[in-house]
Amino acid sequence: MKKIVSLFAIVVAFSSCQEDLQTNNPAFQAKQNDVYWRANDARVSIDEDGRMIITAYNQFETVTLETASTDPGIYVLGTTNQENFATYSNDVDGFSDYYDTGLYYGPAFKVSAMINRGTAYQANSAGAQTTGGSGSGLRVATQTTNGTVTAITVVARGVGYRPGDIVTIVGGNNNATFRVINIQQSNGEIEIEEVENGLFTGKYKFNAVNAEGEVITFSEGVFYKIPISTF
Question: Name one Pfam family in it (predicted).
């Protein structure tokens, strides 16, 4: 019975938070490692290169989201384009920590479409081996047409890869290639959905890593009508 009551309380609390998003202006919230997190305040700044920077904070914690422009769209994090960037920091009782979506080594997370489709690949594979790049162990399921690889899906992420690595699929003439976009510890997306009267609305999610290799996860993130700072 206690478990049922506790679960009901959690559902009510989260529903209440969702309603708050519609009534509070501005709002910046997410799940931090599956626990509800909300900023006390958030502001947008635009730098001299036209990049958007949202700074959101509460008493001890700060989240920043940075995108290469202020245009609506999806900006992918943890890639070689470090103009798209997210950070989380905290400072509690003299102890501080900092996480970011920088360039790190790790298991491949998101990969590109084919750079070169290759030749003489005879059949689809449920787990083709790969070579190249900084790491090892990355395997992909392949779809082939007339000897070329037309599509891939990651089935084993491997270890030690870095964003931007070019990877070759073993088989055929060993010339089908794709790129590692980001890695498991450092990735995510910022989506600017709307900019209206200087107010920014959108979504975000990211994994970020600290100097010790620990990962923090922000999921189901929302920013709602965040104003441009006047300071």
Answer: DUF6252
Predicted confidence (pLDDT) at residue 16 exceeds the cutoff of 90: no
Q: Are 158 and 111 in contact (CB under 8 A)?
A: no
Q: For the chain, what percent of residues have pLDDT higher than 90?
A: 84
pLDDT of residue 230: 64
Distance in angstroms (rounded) separating the CA atoms of residues 92 and 94: 5
Sheet containing 125-128: give its strands across: 125-128, 136-145, 148-159
- State the alpha helices, DSSP H only, in the chain: 2-23
State how far the Cα of 97 lies from the Cα of 172, in Å rounded to an integer: 48
pLDDT tens across 190-202, in order? 999 999 999 999 9
Q: Where are the beta strands (DSSP E) in the chain?
A: 27-32, 35-38, 41-46, 52-57, 61-67, 73-77, 85-92, 95-100, 108-111, 125-128, 130-131, 136-145, 148-159, 166-169, 176-183, 187-196, 199-209, 215-227
Q: Domain residues of the chain, as ranges?
A: 2-103+185-227, 108-183
Place of tokens 């609390």: 13
Structure token pair of residue 13? 């609390």
pLDDT confidence of residue 35: 96
